[in-house]
Amino acid sequence: MLAEAQLLREASLIDGIWIDAADEWISVDDPATGEIVGRVPKLGARETEQAIAAAERAMPAWAAGTAKERAAVLRRWFDLIIAHQDVLGRILTREQGKPLAEAKGEIAYAASFIDWFAEEAKRVYGDVVPPHMADKRIVVLKQPIGVVAAITPWNFPAAMITRKLAPALAAGCATVLKPASQTPFTALALAVLAEKAGLPKGLINVVTGSAAAIGGVLTASKTVRKLTFTGSTEIGAKLYEQCAPTIKKLSLELGGNAPFLVFDDADVDAAVAGAIASKYRNAGQTCVCANRFYVQAGIYDRFVAKLAEAANKLTVGPGMREGTLIGPLIDEAAVAKAQEHVDDAVSKGATIVAGGKPHALGGRYFEPTVLEGVKPAMIILEEETFGPVAPIVRFEDEADAIAQANATDFGLAAYFYARDLGRVWRVAEAIEAGIVGINTGLISTEVAPFGGVKLSGLGREGSRHGIEDYLELKYLCMDIS
Ligand code: ADP
């Protein structure tokens, strides 16, 4: 077992070498206290080139082995992560802020992608195609796409990494990762454990530093054949553009603006429980968090009252404190954004029924908030708040609710509560989103395809589909005459 001091590395990892000298450094702080957790080297273009070259060197031997051999290494990595779940959870909470129980849950979730894709790689079947001419034979191979670059956000410092690296490695690719500068230590700790699991050097390179410099080199490189990114639509679009000259394959998991619909026939207590789970997880800082609630007139008053009551009971505090359910937001700007969304809604006629302002604890804490009487044209319905604020809109009929739910450029997750079977099908089919939670507020799992439509992204992560993005098809046409 490794202790926290051995896992918390103030370094980048390139070609199996921990780079712990740099001219410039990036400080990582604890959102709960503002104290410095540690620092990582601020690397740039030169080191990114080195990391890409290391990945290119490492990949052939790794790809040449069998899926079963790769799975054995990945399985050891999985076991080590599970064995270190507590300490990894603590590192994650310190740099990210989420409650420790949630952080440990994320570690298990992160690990699940490794186990899943290690197994899936054994089932990467090609095709034997009935030929178009009597003297031809056609076979389709699936081969690893090449060096993969991954750029990840701060809200899931562990899961966003394994969701990308596990399918890439399982498929036979080598990787270069740029973790978010707010949360690099979880990524580095995972890399320590990969090394301990026996993953050959150069297959995971972790480059910390300047996003623009590192991103620029990763996107411009002809060696990097795929970029996988989770983050904002704004940066995703920029990376898409930067990848155009080298015609890279892309997976983009971008912003959301998830609607949460509650129909008159819903079980109101279940809907409130689902709303709390979906809205307030990670203090509202997930791309699948419910961002807007639409509640039908017949159930509206009961839902609002019960949601406000439940929100008021959520304990706010440092993630390390036992019993905390809502931790701090990632930074001061996040607090300001939540406040701005509340103020805008109130100035246009919404009413605060719970919370509504920064928490008395000060710092980066914001009260779990519920707003009712929310109407179109309030910013909160149009932009992702990424904070613990639930705005509720009243609606009368189903078609109108669907139209409002779809009146957004985004389409990642959506949720609805209803019991009428016909309605369940109608709404599920009409909602424009990649993921629909029906009578549930929690939808993330490694066994299902995760991803969005419209401006929420490209590609799917997890499930049997998730590995396809790391494979290329090659068709062999043989003349046997
Ligand atoms: P978030 O709001 O989640 O921080 P961002 O899209 O700003 O979303 O950041 C997600 C990831 O993208 C982070 O790792 C960040 O450092 C990185 N990033 C930000 N700007 C760029 C850029 N110009 N090129 C490459 N990566 C970037």
TrEMBL record:
Active site: E253
SUPFAM superfamilies: ALDH-like
Enzyme's top EC category: oxidoreductase
EC number: 1.2.1.-
PROSITE patterns: ALDEHYDE_DEHYDR_CYS, ALDEHYDE_DEHYDR_GLU
Annotated protein name in UniProt: NAD-dependent succinate-semialdehyde dehydrogenase
Organism, scientific name: Sphingomonas natans
Pfam families found in the cross-reference section: Aldedh (PF00171)
Lineage: Bacteria, Pseudomonadati, Pseudomonadota, Alphaproteobacteria, Sphingomonadales
One Gene Ontology MF term: oxidoreductase activity
Presence of keyword Metal-binding: no
Keyword Oxidoreductase on entry: yes
